[in-house]
TrEMBL record:
This is Zn-dependent peptidase ImmA, M78 family. Residues 34-87 form the HTH cro/C1-type domain. It comes from the Bacteria. SMART domains: HTH_XRE. It comes from Trujillonella endophytica. CDD domains: HTH_XRE. InterPro entries: Cro/C1-type_HTH, IrrE_HExxH, Lambda_DNA-bd_dom_sf, Rad_response_metalloprotease. Belongs to the short-chain fatty acyl-CoA assimilation regulator (ScfR) family. GO terms for molecular function: DNA binding.
């Protein structure tokens, strides 16, 4: 009688195969990808070194060109939550220097978070590039912009004049802009609104760059409890893209110019000035606020700017506003109620590519990204429960 055959379980990833894969990554190891992965993880070289049991100097050498041993390569990928293939060359990569982005809150933004924000923006571009190989995205239509550069001579240096130029270029006239973020996306700008740095995202605030093949504006969810502030922030970053091709992050002059641009873009002086009340009237400003999509605070400032009210009346108006808000009046309205102010370009581009055969897993493998990271980049993070009609 023959003994029963023994069931043999075969390892689907034999050690030899895994070793060969790691060797292939080592042969094409890209130090810049290691730096990018480390910054995305928000880790210092010392933190990575401690996790691996090596010296910070060793990690520094890897980031300047020395290839890690295979066991270190596998472990560092695990620590940084990427696949080993992420650390290899062989796919498009647009490198962005931190000095090329406009960070509004530069002094209060830790350097590690700025580095994480830059690495995130690089990944946004990679995702955009991957989708653009399959889907025709709206062409970039920004005065003076071409291939990651802005011609300074194409846009007036005066912020208000630049805002009027953009309105004319985009055919917006002097009317209120109903959906600013959607308008930006329709003209080829990439806008994102995701917690790319987790709980630390609030420390970064909005930022933008025109030094990639497509301009990128990164808005942060911590400000979305107020749709009017959110719209002003988007307009502010748009001002940086047009006015400040030579970025000087945190520069107070550039910040002031971007504010002036945003005010004129959202509330053109020639159109809104005749509508401002001749005396301080918060009810009238509340109605104008909803019509123009700006905060009452912004309109109070506009009243003072055009000399409708005195400095004393200006201060009293803000005191009164604060009192009323403490009573639950003039409440902030969240962005969730305004779909036109939430970015959709990347998510809809993937949806169209998916209809033509692109699977989410295929895209994740192409970019060497975890599925959760790819969903984040696509903006698939709406916190509201979804109503399904059957």
């Amino acid at each position: 009688m023959k003994p029963p055959e023994q069931l043999r379980l075969v390892d689907p990833h034999p050690a030899g195969t895994q070793s060969a894969r790691l060797q292939a990554v080592a042969d094409a190891f890209d130090p810049a990808r290691l730096t990018q992965a480390r910054r995305l993880a928000g880790l210092t070289k010392r933190a990575v070194a401690d996790a691996l049991g090596v010296s910070p100097a060793a990690v520094g050498q890897w980031e300047t060109g020395t290839t890690p041993r295979l066991d270190h390569l596998a472990r560092v990928a695990e620590v940084l939550d990427v696949s080993p293939g992420f650390l290899a060359a062989g796919r498009p990569y647009a490198r962005l220097d931190a000095s090329a982005a406009h960070f509004r809150s530069l002094r209060s933004t830790p350097a590690a978070q700025r580095a994480k924000a830059i690495a995130f923006t690089e990944q946004v571009w990679e995702l955009t590039h991957a989708l653009e190989k399959r889907i025709q995205l709206p062409p970039v239509d920004l005065p003076g912009f071409s291939g990651g550069e802005v011609d300074a001579g194409a846009v007036p240096a005066d912020p208000a004049a630049a805002a009027r130029l953009l309105r004319d270029h985009w055919g917006l006239g002097r009317e209120p802009i109903p959906h600013l973020v959607r308008t930006m996306e329709a003209h080829g700008l990439i806008v994102t609104l995701v917690p790319f740095a987790g709980a630390e995202t609030a420390k970064v605030d909005a930022f933008s760059t025109s030094q990639l093949p497509r301009p990128v504006v990164v808005l942060t969810p911590d400000r979305t409890n107020d749709v009017y502030h959110h719209r002003f922030t988007a307009a502010h970053e748009l001002g940086h893209l047009l006015l400040h091709h030579d970025a000087n992050p945190g520069d107070p002059v550039q910040e002031k110019e971007a504010h002036a641009f945003a005010a004129e873009l959202l509330t053109p002086r020639e159109a809104v000035e005749p509508q401002l009340p001749s005396r301080m009237d918060l009810n009238a400003l509340d109605r104008l606020s909803r019509e123009w999509g700006v905060g009452v605070n912004s309109l109070v400032y506009r009243c003072r700017e055009v000399n409708v009210i005195s400095d004393a009346a200006y201060r009293r108006a803000f005191q009164r506003l604060n009192q009323l808000r403490q009573l639950g009046l003039f409440k902030k309205e969240p962005v969730e109620g305004y779909p036109g102010e939430r970015p959709v370009l990347l998510r809809r581009a993937f949806g169209l590519a998916e209809q033509h055969g692109l699977a989410l897993r295929e895209l994740a493998d192409e970019l060497h990204l975890p599925m959760a990271r790819l969903r984040l980049l696509l903006g698939d993070d709406d916190p509201r429960p979804e109503l399904r009609l059957v």
